[in-house]
Amino acid sequence: MRHETTWETAAQSPIRLRGRSHPFLTLEITEHDPAALEQALAARLAGTASFFRHAPVLLDLAALPPAAEAQVAPLVEAVRRFGLVPAAFRARWPEIERAALACGLGRMLEAEQDCATPCTRRPSVIVSQPVRSGQRIYAAEADLIVLHSVSPGAQLLADGCIHVYGALRGSASAGISDDPHARIFAKIMDAELLSIAGLWLSAQEIPPEWVKRPAQLRMSDGWLRFAPLP
């Protein structure tokens, strides 16, 4: 559900305040040593840093103990040095929350959901044209269906599943609203980056037997696993 609030004055208001779901990259930080964090980021982002440059990031600091309060600012700076843009945070302890707020980060507002209520989806977003390099398409609360190929440098994002009926050569992120049941389907799997519910694989991590072949990607037991198309 989306909400929109506007203020009407005698003249047309120059602003609109909207509450919407946004596909932030989530970075879970479990290590409060900035040097160790930088080393881990360098290893994890090797070869894919350009995809995340200037990307807004949600820092999940829930694993940090209260005693790590003084390390929050150096950790945030370490993330920024890799071209990421820390924008919001989650924290468990008041000490960590205060430190994150002092760094200029916003507190992430969590929507309460009844787990017994199935997630509702909007009608699928269908793209009838090839997706060119530099294009970014986001299917909010819906599946994304591309009837043609996706060029290198293009980005597909969806809260639901992603279907590509041509070659998938760009990046695809499904289930970005933390839906572990989302899947990615491609007639030709040749992606630069794949992600489901925050877990992702770079092109170098895709098993060779699935490259340039019909395939689907799903999450199982906390791992991303490939399977053939039916």
From TrEMBL:
It comes from Teichococcus coralli. InterPro entries: CAP/MinC_C, MinC, MinC_C_sf, MinC_N, Septum_form_inhib_MinC_C. Residues 126-222 form the Septum formation inhibitor MinC C-terminal domain. This is Probable septum site-determining protein MinC. One of its GO terms (biological process) is regulation of cell division. Residues 15-86 form the Septum formation inhibitor MinC N-terminal domain. The keyword Iron does not apply. The keyword Cell division applies. SUPFAM superfamilies: Cell-division inhibitor MinC, C-terminal domain (SSF63848). Interacts with MinD and FtsZ. The lineage of its organism: Bacteria, Pseudomonadati, Pseudomonadota, Alphaproteobacteria, Acetobacterales.
